[in-house]
């Protein structure tokens, strides 16, 4: 188990264990009768009078004779209802009145940790522009959970949510850079940023091409942390707003484009988890931060760009810009031959059509990485779904007039062809790519509508398992 180092305080926290606490019993539907049989008659009558059945999301406070809270009960549903979601305790926690609670349950350790994390995540509020009332109920960390590690994970997720939720007016490339610098300062990491025309002199031409039309200059953020251990490089797509470029998006498609830096936000949150936990690895974070804007110097359809790797790319849609900026960053990452490269990006609408908003599709040719990730994803209630690097589709990304096509015609297998495109730029290192959505379209327990991290907890645990020494 990892030891958590001290870091700058962030929002997630447990209640003081010395506080007066109300016992909170977690009771499933099929356990309610047995639980009630062990309670005093007034408790049973109160539960019955308030129609408490143990259904998911139910919460009930049982008063004592003096009116103070004697105990509270949270419904835990049944096996079928629990399979339809996650963070079930969080649904009840949001309904509890103000107070400090101590959980009473016999949940297995892994399930208990996930439910406890869900409670922490329920306290998230995005209040930069509008004050929101804080969560009323506080939880004392249950016995048997690693409280420091859970708060570290929650803090990383909250960082990701804040970055995604912030509109592009306040989260352009310079602001994303500042967020990375703040994180680096917190953890004593080194950071270097290549900006504007320097991208050309440093051979990062596609990052420059995509971002040159914006008033806020494009840049590559390069953060390093850790001096010993295996080398793991995270690459996050940082398109702070995507108009579609000259292939301008329609309004309906442009509405959520503040989240097109969701890959960058997620790797920064993941980086916080890794650094705050003191994981023994050498971590590198690369973020190409750009805005895909429309101007007289925008890159054009049918332009041919030369990448850092030397591969030429025909531009058949300027709205397929994320893979271009990632390509240069991946080529740079690959030159160091790390033990693992992981890219995260809100890359394709095809991925959403394939698996919807809740699953994080990913690509990897390493069975060791796949089996570890699948295991950690299940353990941490952080669902992922493997997609294929289907080599026969390679021909679809070869246009004939250049080495690669950034937007193959036909519309088939869009997330696969995008992943194959990215794989062309990683030739010397193990590689995994995550095509995430980064957005919760409707509120769910522990996940309000808005920005959300995906696969970060699963990746964090997989990195610990595979590379932590």
Task: Walk me through the structure.
This protein has 2 domains: 22-136, Leucine Aminopeptidase, subunit E, domain 1 (3-Layer(aba) Sandwich), CATH 3.40.220.10; 151-467, Aminopeptidase (3-Layer(aba) Sandwich). Helix 14 (367-379) packs across helix 16. It is elongated, with a radius of gyration of 24 Å. Helix content is 34%, strand content 20%. Mean pLDDT is 96; it is low at 3-10. With 469 residues, the chain is α/β, with parallel strands linked by helices. The termini are close together. Strands 6, 7, 8, 9, 10, 13, 14, 15 and 17 form a 9-stranded mixed β-sheet that branches. It has helices spanning 32-37, 41-49, 79-82, 88-93, 109-122, 147-165, 173-187, 198-201, 205-211, 251-254, 262-277, 322-335, 349-355, 367-379, 414-423, 456-467, and strands at residues 22-27, 59-63, 69-75, 99-104, 137-139, 190-195, 219-225, 230-236, 238-242, 281-292, 304-306, 312-314, 340-345, 360-364, 384-387, 404-405, 431-435, 439-440, 450-451. InterPro entries: Leucine_aapep/pepB, Macro_dom-like, Peptidase_M17_C, Peptidase_M17_N_1. Belongs to the peptidase M17 family. Keywords: Aminopeptidase, Hydrolase, Manganese, Protease. Pfam families: Peptidase_M17 (PF00883), Peptidase_M17_N_1 (PF21337). This is Leucyl aminopeptidase.
Could you write a compact summary of the structure shown?
With 469 residues, the chain is of the alpha/beta class.
């Amino acid at each position: 188990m990892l030891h958590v180092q001290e870091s700058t305080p962030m929002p997630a926290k447990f209640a003081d264990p010395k506080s007066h606490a109300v016992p909170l019993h977690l009771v499933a539907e099929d356990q309610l009768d047995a639980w009630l049989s062990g309670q005093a008659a007034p408790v049973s009558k109160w539960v019955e009078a308030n129609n408490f059945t143990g259904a998911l999301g139910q919460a009930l406070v049982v008063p004592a004779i003096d009116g103070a809270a004697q105990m509270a009960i949270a419904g835990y549903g049944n096996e079928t209802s629990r399979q339809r979601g996650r963070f079930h305790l969080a649904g009840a926690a949001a309904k509890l009145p103000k107070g400090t609670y101590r959980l009473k349950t016999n949940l297995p350790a892994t399930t208990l940790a996930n439910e406890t994390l869900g409670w922490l995540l329920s306290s998230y509020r995005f209040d930069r522009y509008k004050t929101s009332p804080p969560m009323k109920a506080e939880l004392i960390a249950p016995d048997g959970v690693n409280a420091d590690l859970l708060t570290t994970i929650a803090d990383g997720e909250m960082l990701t949510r804040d970055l995604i939720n912030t509109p592009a007016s306040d989260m352009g490339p310079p602001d994303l850079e500042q967020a990375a610098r703040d994180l680096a300062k917190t953890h004593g990491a080194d950071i270097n940023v290549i900006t504007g025309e320097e991208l050309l002199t440093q051979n990062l031409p596609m990052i420059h091409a995509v971002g040159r039309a914006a008033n806020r200059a494009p840049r590559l953020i390069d953060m390093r942390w850790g001096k010993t251990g295996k080398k793991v490089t995270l690459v996050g797509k940082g398109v702070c707003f995507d108009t579609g470029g000259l292939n301008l998006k329609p309004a309906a498609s442009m509405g959520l484009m503040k989240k097109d830096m969701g890959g960058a936000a997620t790797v920064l949150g993941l980086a916080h988890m890794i650094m705050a936990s003191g994981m023994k690895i050498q971590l590198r974070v690369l973020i190409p931060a750009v805005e895909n804007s429309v101007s007289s110097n925008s890159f054009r359809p049918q332009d041919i760009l030369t990448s850092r790797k030397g591969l030429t790319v025909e531009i058949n849609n300027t709205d397929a810009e994320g893979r271009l900026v990632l390509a240069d960053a991946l080529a740079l990452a690959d030159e160091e031959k790390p033990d693992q490269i992981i890219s995260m990006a809100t890359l394709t609408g095809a991925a959403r059509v394939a698996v919807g908003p809740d699953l994080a599709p990913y690509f990897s040719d390493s069975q060791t990485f796949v089996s570890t990730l699948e295991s950690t994803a299940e353990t941490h209630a952080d669902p992922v779904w493997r997609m294929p690097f289907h080599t026969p589709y390679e021909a679809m990304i070869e246009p004939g007039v250049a080495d690669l096509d950034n937007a193959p015609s036909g519309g088939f297998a869009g997330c696969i062809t995008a992943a194959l495109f990215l794989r062309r730029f990683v030739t010397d290192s193990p590689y995994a790519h995550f095509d995430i959505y980064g957005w919760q379209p409707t509120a769910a327990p522990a996940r309000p509508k808005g920005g959300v991290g995906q696969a970060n907890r699963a990746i964090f645990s997989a990195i610990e398992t595979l590379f932590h020494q």
